[in-house]
Amino acid sequence: MRIGHGFDVHAFGGINPLILGGVKIKFKHGLIAHSDGDVVLHALIDALLGAAAMGDIGTVFPDNNINFKGVNSFYLLSEVWKLISLNYVIGNIDITIILQTPKINPYLKQMCTNISKNLDCKKNKINIKVTTTEKLGFVGREEGIACEAVALLLNKK
């Protein structure tokens, strides 16, 4: 049994749509990023890599590599999971999305479905919740979004 923690943050801006957990969110801003800026999947990737002692997203998929420019974060997650799933299965995943705006509760079930399909695990092993910073800091000023993820991996053998 191994546990990992992941964190990601991106500022609002740019021309890309806002994508969280693989869901396109209707909002006036996207997130500035080298990839598609999906903070949910980036935090999850870091949690999975941490649990497997395989480094972090920036080491595995460096932002100075043009091959990852604008890449769909589910591609990154699937590449990481191909390696990790050789030895582990998902115990559970807990994700906290930290944002002041937009309101995203209606999208959480679809995010959960997207992640469970990509990781080939049951939806009841994934929890996604949302909180604000009570208008404090860059998130409270509506300048961006942060996300934390915790992943528990169980040995296959």
TrEMBL record:
GO terms for biological process: isopentenyl diphosphate biosynthetic process, methylerythritol 4-phosphate pathway; terpenoid biosynthetic process. One of its GO terms (molecular function) is metal ion binding. PROSITE patterns: ISPF (PS01350). 4-CDP-2-C-methyl-D-erythritol 2-phosphate binds at residues 8-10, 34-35, 56-58, 61-65, 131-134, 138, 141. PANTHER family: 2-C-METHYL-D-ERYTHRITOL 2,4-CYCLODIPHOSPHATE SYNTHASE, CHLOROPLASTIC. Homotrimer. This is 2-C-methyl-D-erythritol 2,4-cyclodiphosphate synthase. It comes from Candidatus Pantoea edessiphila. The gene is ispF.
